Task: inverse folding
């Protein structure tokens, strides 16, 4: 009886797997095939995601313009800084991630001629398009804080940042040097400062994620290691996070874990030789100096320079799009997504997973001459890593409206039940039962 049930289950599982495989393989051929030329600017998370989806939807005339030979998976840099991942793993050769069938122009876009449906490249040549998708990310302004570049370049300066591939490893290395320095004791603790910029930034949770991971590392080493360190989070904002629901939880945790916070404080300069950072107290407009042993800086960020003088942006230089359809407010055949747009969502790769299908769907609708769908609700998520093995998953839309996948009260089936202790237990037992069954067979 046991064997019969197991064999039948296996046959059913094999049937479902084959059917799913056939569906996935044949799906692109069942789609309407289209010949319109789509040019995508940028081979980052957004550009690659859209290009792959366009291909899957039967649009085979897709070109990506991207100058970099390497694609970086930036979210990993937080874990690299926290000693939980290898920096090399955040890199992939661009040629390996450009979707199959997509043309890759290894150049930089320098200008836009939307009236002529053209972009100009850094060698002076032009590329024509029927549809243009702008996915050029945001730029990091390393020179906005005097002393930052000098501090990052100097090996033993104590100045670190996870916001760049070249400096994320330095974060973990510097942390270990300071942590293992015997001159720091509970009566003379090492000073770890974590800054937050006054500008828009990608992954607004990252400046504190790295702090929580390092704090947890110290805690795991025992009370002496933890008490020999003094951690302070300094932010121009008035709270730990932009969405109150999560901010309240983080504030409670901050107090419990003995981490200091200085709200309304903006980093303005770094005196590298003297290991002294100057912050502006925004409440009374007074500069204050703080010495540090390790200073983690989340740098200023802004819209990419080449976009700023173009006709497709708003007064701040971000691509001006409708916040629900992702279509340019000025040109009907231009769409944009990811970090370079002026949509008021939190700039994360998670947001792009919701924006990309909307862009693809609306390009198709535009080709078909039907009204666009306003499908994007501002969804973004921020997996706030609060310890080596713990995440506070913040998920929200425009205006900080909660959009939690595993919402036990308001979530949809099956998420309402998945995540509860009982369902986790049942799921665990079920997996174990199937495992034992397979072993018996
Ligand atoms: C430290 C850190 C931690 C993060 N953690 C998370 C996280 O936990 N969860 C999460 O969801 N998100 C996280 N993010 C944010 C996420 O990585 C970004 O939101 C995402 O990469 C944005 O994708 P994008 O395609 O818009 O921009 P990018 O991925 O930056 O890509 C932009 C691309 O455009 C190209 N480009 C630029 N200028 C031109 C030009 N003139 N011509 C042609 N191409 C050009 C660039 O070379 C680049 O390849 C994190 C980011 C960082 C830095």
Result:
């Amino acid at each position: 009886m046991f064997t019969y049930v197991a064999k039948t289950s296996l046959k059913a599982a094999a049937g479902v797997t084959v059917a799913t495989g056939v569906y996935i393989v044949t799906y692109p051929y069942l789609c309407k095939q289209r010949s319109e030329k789509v040019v995508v600017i940028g081979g980052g998370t957004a550009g690659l995601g859209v290009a792959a989806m366009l291909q899957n939807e039967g649009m085979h005339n897709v070109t990506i313009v991207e100058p970099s030979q390497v694609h970086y998976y930036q979210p990993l840099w937080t874990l690299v800084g926290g000693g939980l991942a290898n920096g090399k793993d955040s890199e992939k050769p661009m040629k390996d991630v450009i979707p199959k069938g997509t043309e890759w122009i290894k150049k930089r876009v320098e200008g836009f001629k939307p009236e002529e449906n053209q972009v100009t490249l850094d060698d002076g040549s032009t590329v024509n398009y029927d549809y243009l998708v702008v996915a050029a990310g945001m730029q990091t302004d390393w020179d906005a804080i005097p002393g930052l570049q000098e501090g990052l370049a100097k090996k033993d300066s104590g100045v670190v940042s996870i916001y760049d591939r070249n400096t994320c490893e330095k974060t973990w290395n510097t942390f270990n040097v300071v942590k293992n320095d015997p001159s720091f004791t509970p009566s003379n603790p090492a000073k770890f400062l974590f800054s937050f910029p006054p500008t828009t930034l990608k992954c607004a949770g990252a400046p504190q994620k790295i702090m929580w991971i390092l704090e947890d590392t110290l805690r795991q080493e025992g009370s002496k290691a933890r008490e020999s360190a003094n951690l302070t989070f300094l932010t121009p904002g008035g709270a730990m996070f932009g969405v109150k629901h999560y901010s309240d939880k983080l504030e409670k945790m901050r107090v419990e874990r003995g981490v200091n916070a200085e709200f309304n404080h903006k980093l303005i300069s770094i005196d590298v030789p003297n290991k002294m950072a100057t912050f502006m107290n925004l409440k009374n407009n007074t500069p204050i100096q703080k010495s540090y042993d390790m200073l983690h800086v989340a740098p200023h960020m802004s819209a990419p320079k080449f976009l700023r003088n173009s006709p497709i942006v708003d007064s701040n230089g971000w691509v001006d799009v409708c916040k629900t359809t992702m279509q340019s407010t000025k040109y009907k055949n231009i769409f944009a997504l990811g970090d370079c747009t002026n949509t008021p969502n939190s700039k994360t790769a998670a947001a792009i997973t919701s924006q990309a299908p909307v862009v693809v769907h609306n390009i198709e609708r535009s080709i078909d001459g039907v009204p666009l769908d306003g499908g994007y609700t501002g969804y973004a998520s921020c997996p706030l890593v609060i310890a080596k093995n713990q995440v506070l998953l913040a998920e929200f839309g425009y205006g900080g409206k909660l959009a939690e996948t595993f919402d036990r009260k308001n979530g949809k089936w099956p998420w309402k039940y998945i995540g509860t202790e009982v369902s986790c237990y049942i799921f665990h037992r079920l997996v174990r039962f199937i495992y034992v069954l397979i072993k018996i067979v």
In short: Residues 41-47, 65-68, 74-75, 77-78, 108-109, 135-137, 162-163, 202-203, 206, 304, 306, 338-340, 347-350, 352, 383 surround flavin-adenine dinucleotide (CB under 6 Å). The mean pLDDT is 92. The longest strand covers residues 380-387. The chain has twelve helices and 22 strands.
